[in-house]
Design brief:
127 residues; four-stranded mixed β-sheet; five-stranded antiparallel β-sheet; mainly beta; 1 helix; 14% helix
Length: 127
Amino acid sequence: MSMISFVICALCLVSTLSAIPSPGMVFSAVIRNSQNAPVECVVGWGTFSTTVPINVAVTIESNQHTVINEKIVDMGTWTAAAFIEEIHCGDLKLVAPFPKVTRTQRCWQFLVEPNKLTSVGPGSCVQ
């Protein structure tokens, strides 16, 4: 009887965990600056095996946007697609897993506001 109870509990646990959406990764982004002043943003990248010493710094003019393109990293004997680990814009910081990202995304839109950095949703990488 205890084995049956164990199996039922295990099935309940598995069904609960499978219902939780897994966080996704962002491979490229559109960062929009809704402030009335330019902002300096630094994008940090990583891979599954290590943090990649790649930081992309961009200045985004007032009420403008910039596209952060995908990065391919040479790992020595193979290459890997890097994903965005964190975004710093001025004093604001957003770290992966990003809100609303539940699967692999390209051209994910982020919004720089005066008091916060927001994960918005799918964007367009057309400049």
